[in-house]
Amino acid sequence: MAAADLLCDSLLRWLENRRECGKKLLELAQELENVTRSSKAVRVAGAAKSVANPPVADQAAGTAVSVTSKLVEAGISRSTFNKATELIKEDEKVGKSIQKQLQDLKDRCGGAKLGAHADELECEVVTQLMWALARRNKTLVPLDFLRGFNRATFFRHMTPGGLDPAKASCLICQALGLARSPEITSSLKVSAKEMMKNTGQIGIKAAVKAGSKVPSAINLSMSLYDLIDQCEELVKRKKVAEASKFLRDSAREIPEGQQKLKEQLDAMHEIIQKLFKMKNLITNLGGYSLSMNENGRNVVAYIRGTCRDSTVVSWLQGVTHQNEFLNLLRFCMEGLSPILNKYDSSHIHIPEHLTRPDGRHIDIVIVAHGRIVDQFMPAGFLVPKPTIRDTILYSPWNCFINSNAVFGIAQGNIQVEDRELCNNVYSEPNPLPNHWNSMQGSRHNIPLILLSPVTPEDEAWKIFQKLWKNRDLNIKDRVIFPYLVPQDQVDAYGEIPLLILISAISVILLAHGRTATVHLAACLGHAGSPAMPEEWRAQYAYTSDQTYMTVNLRDDKRNVNMDLLRALRLLFDSQEP
Question: Which of 176, 199, 309, 442 would give a disulfide with 379, using CB separation of 3.0 to 4.6 Å?
């Protein structure tokens, strides 16, 4: 985004200019101190001559210590003063440019549309600035990857759930291998909260009352014009020593404000570099394994540090689950790579506008054995931002589905009005809601959904393996994603919560700068767990035991993958009550 590039250049230019301003103020202070020493020498000489000729001595002394409002007339060389004036004019010019460029960037990031959603705007502005720094340093990191990191870490308060920010920062730094862990994370937090505020004040004249008291600090908002005015006021009041001290103290304190911004920019750049390395670690995990190497530990630490879902973080505490999650990442990369590589954001130019172009959003249909248990979690946990826009369930709670329903989900042509409940036809409420069960739109808790993989014991396994190997599970931007045990990796997979699989998918999408809507094609019977009809009904709907859902498939002119349909029939129709 051009606005972010201009702001980045101006900030770096401003930093360099203020550094030069600091040096020039020290020169001014030194020359004022020379004036003070000279005036003392004149006073001493005048006192020595006072016995012989008092009136002349008094006149000489008065001339020596007399000053006007202009620093040049106080004894500062005109060349030094002119150079300082030029730097101050440049400081004010760049400062005003920064203010305008910051506002332009906010406007480009949708400032007017976001309105009261200040955190959304702040997150986007910081993300765009980080991306500009990355381009400036020739680090080709995807924009969505940076945006996702900022949302998942330093703007985690924008969504519910997650680790305590202090603990999260520690884990993030551990994973990214940052040398200055506390300082860097706190610097980036400051950049998110204070940097934009400070940037907006650069070049604004601060109200500084004339007096002998030197301000305790010269911050980013301090105008150098005001600083010189204050110094001249002191000189007018014949306080040359205090004026020189004021300049010297200011010259020392200006770099402190400058250094604060520089550290924020440096922290951003360092994190960008580390994130890019982390992206490469995730996308190059290697083959399936039941043990964990150093790269795997770093990936797990990074995910634990950036994940907002405390359930996922808790699940990842055990080494067995950590290995399982790493294998899930490998599995997801293998299954999603054909469609992700089609629009890999690390190899293409990303448009400037913030909306994602067509083709960058995909639909993922998870196919697996499923069941629900008597544990509950917020529905929103199945929609991890920013990569997952929604997760959609199709059957009521405590309901099976057959191959017709799954095939309709896979094809993307399933309609609410075409569904039918078979066997024990009883549901609450009755009639069922006239929409599918969207997790994005639900504010209720939902039963924990457990998924089991398709294994060699399933008759459908060989067909799915063939389709998987031949990359024959995609329909345009719709991916059929069976939770499938790979060849010779039966021990690497087991029953897992749906939110864990979605979290793994989310990580892969983040690394590729993609978004997705997840569709679940699995049975949701309670499988021996206690029935909880009141809770089920409160969230969406439920059916009596042994009920399954089917649909009347509409005519579809698209080519039907008969192998896929056969595999679905073997997997789901054999489960019908």
Answer: 442
